[in-house]
Amino acid sequence: MMGKKNKAETILAQAGHYLDKATGSVVPPIQPSTTFARDEQGALYDANRIYARDQSVNAEMVEAVICELESGEACKLFASGMAAATALVQTLRPGERIVAPKVMYWSLRAWLISFCQDWGIELAFYDPCDEVDMAQVVHASPTHLLWVETPANPTWEVVDIAKAAELAHSVGAQLVTDSTVSTPLLTRPLELGADYVFHSATKYLNGHSDVVAGAVITAKQDTRWERLCKIRAQQGGILGPFESWLLLRGMRTMHIRVERACYNAMEIARHFADYPGVLEVLYPGLVSHPNHETAVKQMSGGFGGMLSIRFDGGREQTAQIMGRLKRFVRATSLGGVESLVEHRALVEGEGSPVPDDLLRFSIGIEAVQDLIEDLEQAIKG
Ligand SMILES: *Cc1c(COP(=O)(O)O)cnc(C)c1O
Protein backbone atom coordinates (compact mmCIF):
# COMPACT_ATOMS: atom_id res chain seq x y z
CA MET A 1 0.00 0.00 0.00
CA MET A 2 1.01 3.56 -0.59
CA GLY A 3 1.45 5.35 2.73
CA LYS A 4 -0.70 8.38 2.08
CA LYS A 5 -4.42 8.54 2.73
CA ASN A 6 -6.53 8.48 -0.42
CA LYS A 7 -8.35 11.64 -1.43
CA ALA A 8 -12.15 11.68 -1.27
CA GLU A 9 -12.54 11.25 -5.04
CA THR A 10 -10.44 8.08 -4.96
CA ILE A 11 -12.21 6.70 -1.90
CA LEU A 12 -15.54 7.19 -3.66
CA ALA A 13 -14.66 5.99 -7.15
CA GLN A 14 -13.04 2.81 -5.81
CA ALA A 15 -15.59 2.32 -3.01
CA GLY A 16 -13.49 -0.15 -1.04
CA HIS A 17 -11.50 -1.42 -4.04
CA TYR A 18 -13.49 -4.66 -4.16
CA LEU A 19 -11.99 -7.63 -5.94
CA ASP A 20 -13.23 -11.19 -5.59
CA LYS A 21 -10.15 -13.40 -5.73
CA ALA A 22 -12.23 -16.46 -6.69
CA THR A 23 -13.88 -14.95 -9.79
CA GLY A 24 -12.07 -11.68 -10.43
CA SER A 25 -15.33 -9.74 -10.20
CA VAL A 26 -14.79 -6.05 -9.42
CA VAL A 27 -18.27 -5.34 -8.06
CA PRO A 28 -19.43 -6.79 -4.73
CA PRO A 29 -22.35 -9.23 -4.71
CA ILE A 30 -25.49 -8.71 -2.64
CA GLN A 31 -25.44 -10.91 0.46
CA PRO A 32 -29.07 -11.37 1.58
CA SER A 33 -28.59 -14.19 4.11
CA THR A 34 -30.39 -13.46 7.37
CA THR A 35 -28.56 -16.14 9.31
CA PHE A 36 -25.04 -17.53 9.39
CA ALA A 37 -24.20 -21.18 9.99
CA ARG A 38 -21.95 -22.96 12.49
CA ASP A 39 -19.66 -25.88 11.75
CA GLU A 40 -19.82 -29.44 13.23
CA GLN A 41 -18.28 -28.21 16.49
CA GLY A 42 -20.77 -25.36 16.74
CA ALA A 43 -18.24 -22.68 15.90
CA LEU A 44 -19.27 -19.80 13.64
CA TYR A 45 -17.60 -19.70 10.26
CA ASP A 46 -17.05 -15.98 10.88
CA ALA A 47 -17.13 -14.81 14.50
CA ASN A 48 -18.68 -11.48 13.42
CA ARG A 49 -21.66 -13.05 11.68
CA ILE A 50 -24.59 -14.59 13.48
CA TYR A 51 -27.78 -12.81 12.42
CA ALA A 52 -28.58 -10.02 9.97
CA ARG A 53 -30.58 -7.71 12.22
CA ASP A 54 -27.32 -5.97 13.01
CA GLN A 55 -24.75 -7.63 10.77
CA SER A 56 -24.66 -6.99 7.08
CA VAL A 57 -21.85 -7.54 4.62
CA ASN A 58 -23.27 -4.93 2.24
CA ALA A 59 -23.94 -2.30 4.92
CA GLU A 60 -20.41 -2.70 6.28
CA MET A 61 -18.93 -1.92 2.87
CA VAL A 62 -20.82 1.37 2.79
CA GLU A 63 -19.92 2.17 6.41
CA ALA A 64 -16.22 1.72 5.68
CA VAL A 65 -16.33 4.19 2.78
CA ILE A 66 -18.35 6.85 4.65
CA CYS A 67 -16.15 6.46 7.72
CA GLU A 68 -13.01 7.05 5.67
CA LEU A 69 -14.55 10.07 3.94
CA GLU A 70 -15.41 11.69 7.26
CA SER A 71 -12.12 10.72 8.99
CA GLY A 72 -14.13 8.99 11.70
CA GLU A 73 -13.45 6.01 13.94
CA ALA A 74 -16.67 4.20 13.11
CA CYS A 75 -19.88 4.52 11.10
CA LYS A 76 -23.30 2.90 11.40
CA LEU A 77 -25.79 2.75 8.58
CA PHE A 78 -29.53 2.97 9.27
CA ALA A 79 -32.70 2.30 7.30
CA SER A 80 -33.40 6.05 7.02
CA GLY A 81 -31.94 9.37 8.01
CA MET A 82 -34.62 9.66 10.66
CA ALA A 83 -33.76 6.19 12.04
CA ALA A 84 -30.15 7.33 12.38
CA ALA A 85 -30.90 10.74 13.90
CA THR A 86 -33.48 9.42 16.35
CA ALA A 87 -31.12 6.62 17.49
CA LEU A 88 -28.50 9.25 18.27
CA VAL A 89 -30.97 11.31 20.32
CA GLN A 90 -32.18 8.13 22.07
CA THR A 91 -28.70 7.76 23.59
CA LEU A 92 -29.74 10.57 25.94
CA ARG A 93 -31.10 9.58 29.37
CA PRO A 94 -34.18 11.06 31.03
CA GLY A 95 -33.19 14.33 32.72
CA GLU A 96 -30.45 15.09 30.19
CA ARG A 97 -30.60 18.03 27.83
CA ILE A 98 -30.35 18.57 24.07
CA VAL A 99 -30.02 21.96 22.41
CA ALA A 100 -31.16 22.20 18.79
CA PRO A 101 -31.59 24.93 16.17
CA LYS A 102 -34.92 26.68 15.63
CA VAL A 103 -34.47 26.19 11.90
CA MET A 104 -33.76 22.57 11.10
CA TYR A 105 -35.06 19.54 9.20
CA TRP A 106 -38.80 19.79 9.82
CA SER A 107 -39.61 16.12 10.60
CA LEU A 108 -36.73 15.79 13.02
CA ARG A 109 -37.79 18.98 14.81
CA ALA A 110 -41.34 17.66 15.15
CA TRP A 111 -40.10 14.28 16.45
CA LEU A 112 -37.71 15.93 18.93
CA ILE A 113 -40.51 17.99 20.46
CA SER A 114 -42.75 14.99 21.13
CA PHE A 115 -40.00 12.50 22.02
CA CYS A 116 -38.28 14.78 24.50
CA GLN A 117 -41.57 15.61 26.17
CA ASP A 118 -42.60 11.95 26.43
CA TRP A 119 -39.24 10.72 27.74
CA GLY A 120 -38.28 13.51 30.12
CA ILE A 121 -35.43 14.92 28.08
CA GLU A 122 -35.00 18.67 28.20
CA LEU A 123 -35.12 20.32 24.77
CA ALA A 124 -34.13 23.92 24.11
CA PHE A 125 -33.86 25.76 20.80
CA TYR A 126 -31.32 28.37 19.69
CA ASP A 127 -31.29 30.82 16.82
CA PRO A 128 -28.80 29.43 14.27
CA CYS A 129 -28.09 32.96 12.97
CA ASP A 130 -26.98 34.14 16.38
CA GLU A 131 -23.83 32.78 18.05
CA VAL A 132 -24.55 34.72 21.24
CA ASP A 133 -27.99 33.13 21.51
CA MET A 134 -26.52 29.66 20.93
CA ALA A 135 -24.02 30.20 23.76
CA GLN A 136 -26.70 31.54 26.10
CA VAL A 137 -29.01 28.60 25.49
CA VAL A 138 -26.19 26.08 25.95
CA HIS A 139 -25.06 27.75 29.18
CA ALA A 140 -28.57 28.14 30.59
CA SER A 141 -28.65 24.60 32.03
CA PRO A 142 -26.35 21.53 31.98
CA THR A 143 -26.31 20.39 28.34
CA HIS A 144 -25.38 16.98 26.97
CA LEU A 145 -25.89 17.26 23.21
CA LEU A 146 -25.70 20.26 20.93
CA TRP A 147 -27.27 19.72 17.51
CA VAL A 148 -26.15 21.75 14.52
CA GLU A 149 -27.49 21.55 10.97
CA THR A 150 -25.43 23.38 8.36
CA PRO A 151 -26.36 24.72 5.90
CA ALA A 152 -29.83 24.58 7.43
CA ASN A 153 -33.09 23.82 5.66
CA PRO A 154 -34.58 25.85 3.99
CA THR A 155 -32.86 29.21 4.43
CA TRP A 156 -29.31 27.80 4.39
CA GLU A 157 -27.87 29.45 7.48
CA VAL A 158 -24.32 28.32 7.99
CA VAL A 159 -23.26 27.57 11.55
CA ASP A 160 -19.59 27.73 12.51
CA ILE A 161 -18.87 24.10 13.48
CA ALA A 162 -15.50 24.80 15.11
CA LYS A 163 -17.03 27.44 17.38
CA ALA A 164 -20.02 25.23 18.18
CA ALA A 165 -17.65 22.37 19.10
CA GLU A 166 -15.66 24.65 21.37
CA LEU A 167 -18.86 25.85 23.03
CA ALA A 168 -20.20 22.32 23.51
CA HIS A 169 -16.94 21.01 24.92
CA SER A 170 -16.58 23.98 27.29
CA VAL A 171 -19.67 22.74 29.17
CA GLY A 172 -18.91 19.02 28.81
CA ALA A 173 -21.47 18.50 26.03
CA GLN A 174 -20.97 16.77 22.69
CA LEU A 175 -21.60 18.19 19.24
CA VAL A 176 -23.65 16.51 16.50
CA THR A 177 -23.59 17.99 13.01
CA ASP A 178 -26.28 17.23 10.44
CA SER A 179 -24.06 17.47 7.39
CA THR A 180 -26.60 16.14 4.86
CA VAL A 181 -26.54 19.30 2.72
CA SER A 182 -22.76 19.83 2.96
CA THR A 183 -22.00 16.23 2.04
CA PRO A 184 -18.73 14.62 3.23
CA LEU A 185 -17.02 16.43 0.36
CA LEU A 186 -17.57 20.12 1.15
CA THR A 187 -17.27 20.04 4.96
CA ARG A 188 -15.71 17.56 7.36
CA PRO A 189 -17.26 18.25 10.77
CA LEU A 190 -15.14 15.75 12.75
CA GLU A 191 -11.98 17.54 11.61
CA LEU A 192 -13.54 20.78 12.90
CA GLY A 193 -14.19 19.31 16.35
CA ALA A 194 -17.65 17.73 16.08
CA ASP A 195 -18.11 14.46 17.98
CA TYR A 196 -20.68 12.91 15.62
CA VAL A 197 -21.74 13.53 12.05
CA PHE A 198 -25.16 12.62 10.77
CA HIS A 199 -26.19 12.20 7.13
CA SER A 200 -29.47 11.44 5.48
CA ALA A 201 -27.81 9.18 2.91
CA THR A 202 -31.09 9.39 0.98
CA LYS A 203 -29.77 12.68 -0.38
CA TYR A 204 -26.33 13.37 -1.89
CA LEU A 205 -24.62 10.18 -0.73
CA ASN A 206 -26.96 8.03 -2.79
CA GLY A 207 -27.89 10.80 -5.19
CA HIS A 208 -30.41 9.01 -7.40
CA SER A 209 -33.67 9.38 -5.45
CA ASP A 210 -34.02 5.61 -5.12
CA VAL A 211 -32.74 4.70 -1.63
CA VAL A 212 -33.81 5.87 1.83
CA ALA A 213 -30.88 5.58 4.25
CA GLY A 214 -29.06 7.30 7.10
CA ALA A 215 -25.60 7.25 8.65
CA VAL A 216 -23.93 8.32 11.88
CA ILE A 217 -20.15 8.66 12.04
CA THR A 218 -18.26 9.07 15.32
CA ALA A 219 -14.93 10.71 16.13
CA LYS A 220 -14.41 8.22 18.99
CA GLN A 221 -15.98 4.95 19.98
CA ASP A 222 -17.10 6.38 23.33
CA THR A 223 -19.92 5.29 25.63
CA ARG A 224 -22.54 7.21 23.65
CA TRP A 225 -21.36 5.42 20.53
CA GLU A 226 -21.70 2.07 22.29
CA ARG A 227 -25.25 2.99 23.27
CA LEU A 228 -26.02 3.93 19.66
CA CYS A 229 -24.66 0.58 18.43
CA LYS A 230 -26.82 -1.23 20.98
CA ILE A 231 -29.91 0.69 19.88
CA ARG A 232 -29.36 -0.31 16.27
CA ALA A 233 -28.61 -3.93 17.18
CA GLN A 234 -31.68 -4.28 19.37
CA GLN A 235 -34.16 -2.17 17.41
CA GLY A 236 -32.95 -3.46 14.07
CA GLY A 237 -32.90 -0.17 12.18
CA ILE A 238 -30.14 -1.35 9.86
CA LEU A 239 -30.21 -0.74 6.10
CA GLY A 240 -31.07 -3.81 4.01
CA PRO A 241 -28.52 -5.53 1.77
CA PHE A 242 -30.03 -4.45 -1.55
CA GLU A 243 -30.37 -0.81 -0.46
CA SER A 244 -26.81 -0.89 0.88
CA TRP A 245 -25.59 -2.24 -2.44
CA LEU A 246 -27.44 0.50 -4.35
CA LEU A 247 -26.11 3.15 -1.99
CA LEU A 248 -22.52 2.01 -2.50
CA ARG A 249 -23.09 2.14 -6.25
CA GLY A 250 -24.59 5.63 -6.03
CA MET A 251 -21.75 6.93 -3.87
CA ARG A 252 -19.11 6.06 -6.45
CA THR A 253 -19.99 9.18 -8.47
CA MET A 254 -20.80 11.53 -5.59
CA HIS A 255 -17.82 13.83 -6.16
CA ILE A 256 -18.79 14.40 -9.79
CA ARG A 257 -22.46 14.91 -8.93
CA VAL A 258 -21.77 17.31 -6.06
CA GLU A 259 -19.27 19.32 -8.08
CA ARG A 260 -21.82 19.80 -10.86
CA ALA A 261 -24.69 20.58 -8.47
CA CYS A 262 -22.54 23.22 -6.73
CA TYR A 263 -21.61 24.77 -10.06
CA ASN A 264 -25.22 24.83 -11.29
CA ALA A 265 -26.52 26.23 -7.99
CA MET A 266 -23.94 29.02 -8.00
CA GLU A 267 -24.80 29.96 -11.59
CA ILE A 268 -28.52 30.03 -10.79
CA ALA A 269 -27.98 32.02 -7.57
CA ARG A 270 -25.91 34.64 -9.40
CA HIS A 271 -28.30 34.82 -12.34
CA PHE A 272 -31.39 35.43 -10.22
CA ALA A 273 -29.84 37.47 -7.38
CA ASP A 274 -30.97 40.79 -8.91
CA TYR A 275 -33.65 39.49 -11.24
CA PRO A 276 -36.98 41.31 -11.70
CA GLY A 277 -39.67 39.65 -9.60
CA VAL A 278 -37.12 38.10 -7.24
CA LEU A 279 -37.10 39.40 -3.68
CA GLU A 280 -34.07 37.46 -2.47
CA VAL A 281 -31.88 34.49 -3.34
CA LEU A 282 -30.74 32.52 -0.30
CA TYR A 283 -27.49 30.71 -1.08
CA PRO A 284 -24.36 30.58 1.11
CA GLY A 285 -22.17 31.06 -1.96
CA LEU A 286 -23.48 34.58 -2.53
CA VAL A 287 -21.50 37.39 -0.90
CA SER A 288 -24.88 38.84 0.14
CA HIS A 289 -25.68 35.76 2.30
CA PRO A 290 -25.38 36.67 5.99
CA ASN A 291 -23.15 33.65 6.73
CA HIS A 292 -21.05 33.81 3.58
CA GLU A 293 -17.80 34.31 5.51
CA THR A 294 -18.40 31.26 7.69
CA ALA A 295 -19.34 29.28 4.59
CA VAL A 296 -16.04 30.25 2.92
CA LYS A 297 -14.19 29.18 6.05
CA GLN A 298 -15.75 25.76 6.51
CA MET A 299 -16.90 24.69 3.04
CA SER A 300 -14.39 23.89 0.35
CA GLY A 301 -15.04 23.00 -3.25
CA GLY A 302 -18.47 24.63 -3.38
CA PHE A 303 -21.45 25.82 -1.38
CA GLY A 304 -23.79 22.94 -2.07
CA GLY A 305 -26.66 22.33 -4.45
CA MET A 306 -29.44 23.75 -2.28
CA LEU A 307 -30.85 27.25 -2.61
CA SER A 308 -34.08 29.09 -1.96
CA ILE A 309 -35.64 32.00 -3.79
CA ARG A 310 -38.18 34.44 -2.37
CA PHE A 311 -40.43 36.12 -4.90
CA ASP A 312 -42.33 39.41 -5.06
CA GLY A 313 -46.08 39.10 -4.75
CA GLY A 314 -46.38 36.71 -1.80
CA ARG A 315 -47.84 33.25 -1.55
CA GLU A 316 -50.09 33.31 -4.59
CA GLN A 317 -47.52 34.56 -7.09
CA THR A 318 -44.96 32.13 -5.69
CA ALA A 319 -47.32 29.18 -6.04
CA GLN A 320 -48.03 30.21 -9.64
CA ILE A 321 -44.33 30.39 -10.47
CA MET A 322 -43.90 26.89 -9.09
CA GLY A 323 -46.86 25.68 -11.16
CA ARG A 324 -45.32 26.99 -14.39
CA LEU A 325 -41.97 25.21 -13.98
CA LYS A 326 -41.51 22.49 -16.60
CA ARG A 327 -38.04 21.05 -16.06
CA PHE A 328 -37.95 21.21 -12.28
CA VAL A 329 -39.92 18.40 -10.67
CA ARG A 330 -42.33 19.50 -7.94
CA ALA A 331 -41.36 17.10 -5.16
CA THR A 332 -39.86 17.00 -1.70
CA SER A 333 -36.35 15.70 -0.90
CA LEU A 334 -32.99 16.82 -2.24
CA GLY A 335 -29.58 15.73 -3.42
CA GLY A 336 -30.65 13.76 -6.49
CA VAL A 337 -29.33 14.15 -10.03
CA GLU A 338 -32.63 15.77 -11.11
CA SER A 339 -33.64 19.27 -10.00
CA LEU A 340 -36.57 19.54 -7.59
CA VAL A 341 -38.66 22.45 -6.37
CA GLU A 342 -40.82 22.71 -3.29
CA HIS A 343 -43.06 25.29 -1.61
CA ARG A 344 -41.96 24.56 1.95
CA ALA A 345 -44.55 26.70 3.79
CA LEU A 346 -47.30 24.83 1.94
CA VAL A 347 -45.78 21.42 2.70
CA GLU A 348 -45.02 22.14 6.36
CA GLY A 349 -48.48 23.59 6.94
CA GLU A 350 -49.65 25.72 9.82
CA GLY A 351 -46.95 26.76 12.27
CA SER A 352 -44.23 26.63 9.67
CA PRO A 353 -41.64 29.37 10.22
CA VAL A 354 -40.81 29.42 6.47
CA PRO A 355 -41.92 32.53 4.53
CA ASP A 356 -44.74 31.65 2.10
CA ASP A 357 -43.04 33.51 -0.78
CA LEU A 358 -40.13 31.04 -0.71
CA LEU A 359 -39.42 28.16 -3.08
CA ARG A 360 -36.75 25.66 -2.17
CA PHE A 361 -34.67 24.26 -4.99
CA SER A 362 -32.54 21.14 -5.02
CA ILE A 363 -30.31 21.78 -8.00
CA GLY A 364 -29.39 18.71 -10.01
CA ILE A 365 -26.78 18.01 -12.62
CA GLU A 366 -28.70 19.05 -15.76
CA ALA A 367 -27.42 21.70 -18.20
CA VAL A 368 -27.67 24.85 -16.11
CA GLN A 369 -28.90 26.90 -19.07
CA ASP A 370 -31.98 24.68 -19.28
CA LEU A 371 -32.73 25.27 -15.61
CA ILE A 372 -32.22 29.03 -15.87
CA GLU A 373 -34.48 29.17 -18.93
CA ASP A 374 -37.19 27.25 -17.12
CA LEU A 375 -37.11 29.55 -14.12
CA GLU A 376 -37.09 32.65 -16.32
CA GLN A 377 -40.22 31.58 -18.20
CA ALA A 378 -41.94 30.66 -14.93
CA ILE A 379 -41.17 34.06 -13.38
CA LYS A 380 -42.26 35.97 -16.51
CA GLY A 381 -45.52 34.01 -16.60
C1 LIG B 1 -33.83 14.24 4.55
C2 LIG B 1 -33.18 14.83 5.73
C3 LIG B 1 -33.24 14.21 6.98
C4 LIG B 1 -34.03 12.92 7.22
O1 LIG B 1 -33.55 11.86 6.47
P1 LIG B 1 -34.47 10.68 5.82
O2 LIG B 1 -33.48 9.89 5.06
O3 LIG B 1 -35.51 11.34 4.98
O4 LIG B 1 -35.08 9.93 6.95
C5 LIG B 1 -32.57 14.81 8.04
N1 LIG B 1 -31.88 15.97 7.88
C6 LIG B 1 -31.81 16.60 6.68
C7 LIG B 1 -31.04 17.86 6.56
C8 LIG B 1 -32.46 16.05 5.57
O5 LIG B 1 -32.40 16.68 4.40
From TrEMBL:
Superkingdom assignment: Bacteria
Secretion signal, residue range per the UniProt entry: none
Cofactor: pyridoxal 5'-phosphate
GO molecular function: transaminase activity
The entry's keywords: Aminotransferase, Pyridoxal phosphate, Transferase
InterPro entries assigned: Cys/Met-Metab_PyrdxlP-dep_enz (IPR000277), Cys_met_metab_PP (IPR054542), PyrdxlP-dep_Trfase (IPR015424), PyrdxlP-dep_Trfase_major (IPR015421), PyrdxlP-dep_Trfase_small (IPR015422)
Keyword Transferase carried by entry: yes
Pfam families tied to this protein: Cys_Met_Meta_PP (PF01053)
Family: Belongs to the trans-sulfuration enzymes family.
Name this protein carries in UniProt: PLP-dependent aspartate aminotransferase family protein
Organism: Kiloniella laminariae
